[in-house]
Q: What sequence folds into this?
């Protein structure tokens, strides 16, 4: 690894500090270097707060240090006014002579315009440096802007003999996965914008769909209830966190609960994702049940799949969904195994 790769890898590492907090903005890291030494670092902490470049630049009080410096940033600096001013203008104002950019911003408001303006002011720009790594860092953000939908993660746990259903005759819930897998699942919830289940999952599991076994924000809860048959006694309607219900019934919203009238036809998945896109929701975990998961698989609308193969033997029940894709990662969680696939 040469010194330029080191500085960009450091910027990528810094960007990850904002994981789960920046949406609908991307995670961005920035390193300012001079003569082989890091002058300052920054990352985007949270939506509405300073961008990575601003945090790095503001740390340097002696502006003469910008002479012969290089700014490394994982994503093209913004050129438009949003909640915060354009980062490009701050770079120009401080006479930073060289900028190394990981990947171009796919957002229409930026997409090449930031790079163009830097060049117009005589700044040397190196583009697409460690591009693939910088794209993977913000895979949710790129999917959102390139496919006009959230990044979709399918997730389920299945028994060693291939069943997703874990209910006994009296419908009492017994866990398929172990405590480590369940804790990891709560960590995942804290990292994504939203989580979706079907009506039967609500009826059978009465899930809270919040973050309890990890520290972090709760995702937006989403479920489908065609005729609004779920009663207020279920946790998902307790109003403790933002919830979106897709239904064919016209119903007024109430505290933290939004009712969205939609046709339950062949286009329902696309229509749901289109609504979430318009709401600036970058990512969605689909936790089931079987019918809901298979509806996404059938339409080939998914980006990542996380499957726990557990030590439990059920002998009967609902057969787990079948899915293709490429195995990205395997890991052991006690006696359970986790397989992560990408489309």
A:
């Amino acid at each position: 690894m040469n010194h330029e790769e080191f500085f960009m890898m450091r910027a990528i590492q810094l960007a990850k500090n904002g994981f789960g907090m920046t949406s609908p903005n991307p995670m961005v890291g920035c390193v300012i270097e001079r003569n082989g030494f890091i002058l300052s670092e920054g990352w985007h902490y949270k939506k509405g707060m300073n961008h990575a470049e601003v945090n790095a630049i503001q740390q340097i009080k002696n502006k003469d240090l910008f002479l012969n410096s290089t700014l490394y940033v994982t994503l093209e600096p913004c050129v438009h006014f949003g909640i915060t001013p354009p980062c490009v203008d701050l770079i120009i104002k401080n006479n930073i002579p060289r900028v190394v950019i990981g990947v171009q911003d796919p957002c229409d408001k930026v997409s090449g315009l930031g790079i163009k303006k830097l060049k117009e002011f005589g700044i040397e720009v190196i583009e697409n440096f460690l591009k693939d790594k910088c794209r993977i860092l913000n895979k949710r953000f790129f999917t959102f802007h390139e496919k006009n939908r959230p990044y979709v993660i399918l997730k389920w746990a299945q028994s060693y003999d291939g069943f997703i259903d874990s209910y006994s005759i009296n419908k009492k819930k017994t866990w398929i996965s172990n405590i480590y897998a369940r804790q990891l699942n709560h960590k995942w919830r804290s990292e994504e914008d939203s989580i979706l289940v079907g009506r039967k999952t609500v009826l059978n599991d009465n899930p809270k769909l919040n973050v309890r076994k990890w520290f972090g924000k709760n995702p937006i809860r989403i479920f489908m209830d065609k005729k609004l048959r779920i009663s207020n006694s279920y946790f998902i309607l307790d109003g403790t966190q933002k919830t979106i219900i897709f239904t064919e019934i016209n119903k007024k919203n109430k505290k933290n609960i939004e009712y969205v009238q939609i046709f339950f036809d062949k286009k329902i998945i696309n229509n749901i994702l289109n609504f979430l896109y318009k709401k600036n929701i970058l990512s969605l975990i689909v936790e089931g049940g079987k019918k809901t998961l298979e509806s996404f698989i059938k339409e080939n609308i998914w980006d990542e799949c996380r499957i726990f193969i557990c030590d439990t033997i059920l002998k009967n029940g609902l057969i787990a969904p079948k899915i293709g894709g490429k195995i990205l990662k395997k890991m052991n969680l006690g006696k359970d195994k986790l397989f992560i696939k990408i489309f």
About this structure: The chain has ten helices and 14 strands. Residues 240 and 256 are 7 Å apart (CA to CA). The first strand starts at residue 29 and ends at 34.
